[in-house]
Amino acid sequence: MDVEQWKQQVQTERAQKDIFFASHPQSPLPAEARSHFSGLAYWPPDPGYRFELTLHEHAEKSVREVQDTGGHKRELLCWGEFRFAVDSGTCTLQAYKSNPGEDRLFLPFRDQTSGRKSYGAGRYLDLEPIQNQTQTGLWIVDFNHAYNPWCAYSDAYVCPFVPPENWLRVAIRAGEKAFPRGADGSTDGRNEQQGVHPS
């Protein structure tokens, strides 16, 4: 991996996301907030939070029943787990699917920055085989791409909480930081347990 090229790619993707948030009709920001939107906040790109990992697929795929922010229950299929180390701390993250036929892996997580520097409900990673697998079959788990659930920007979205098994005891100082909510004075910490994934 060329680190400088990788950093430039991360910065480019972030700039494109800012443009989407500021002007796209499907932006999660309320229309009245877009005119004074000045960009999302991130930690600087850090290759120390980019991992190439084996997915330890579970022999039996158990179902996790997860409540969402609208008070409804959803089912996530626990497909496998990733194991890695951050700051000498050993971590395990469960990877989920909505159904057995999809290729994408969904990694919701909370960490020790949640409710402080990052959104209180946690953040998310989506892994697609084409984009996030090496030629040798390892998965690229890059926390520099961790993003806030859309309820961080608007109460119009409802989606699942982060399962407690994905609450990390280390700080992931990478990816998107907390987004301050606007005129009503509320911030990302207003609802520590909530999380959302665009549906």
Structural class: alpha+beta
Instruction: Provide a count of the helices.
Output: 3
Percentage of residues in helical conformation? 10-25%
Order of helices and strands: HHEEEEEEEHE
Task: Give the overall pLDDT as a whole number.
Answer: 88
Strand count: 8
Strand content: 15-25%
Instruction: Assign an overall shape.
Output: globular
Q: Please give the radius of gyration in angstroms.
A: 17 Å
Q: What is the end-to-end distance?
A: 33 Å
Task: List the domain count as a whole number.
Answer: 1
Query: Can you summarize the main beta sheet?
Result: 4 strands, antiparallel
Low-pLDDT sequence parts: 183-199
Descriptive overview:
It is a single chain. The chain is of the alpha+beta class and 199 residues long. It has one domain (46-190). The protein has three helices and eight strands. The strands form three sheets. Strands 2, 3, 4 and 5 form a four-stranded antiparallel beta sheet that branches. Strand 3 and strand 4 form a beta hairpin. The chain is globular and about 50 Å long. It starts with a helix and ends in a 57-residue tail after the last strand.
SSE topology sketch:
Elements: H1 3-23, H2 31-34, E1 50-53, E2 56-57, E3 63-67, E4 73-86, E5 89-97, E6 105-109, E7 123-127, H3 129-132, E8 139-142
Antiparallel strand pairs: 1-8, 2-4, 3-4, 4-5, 6-7
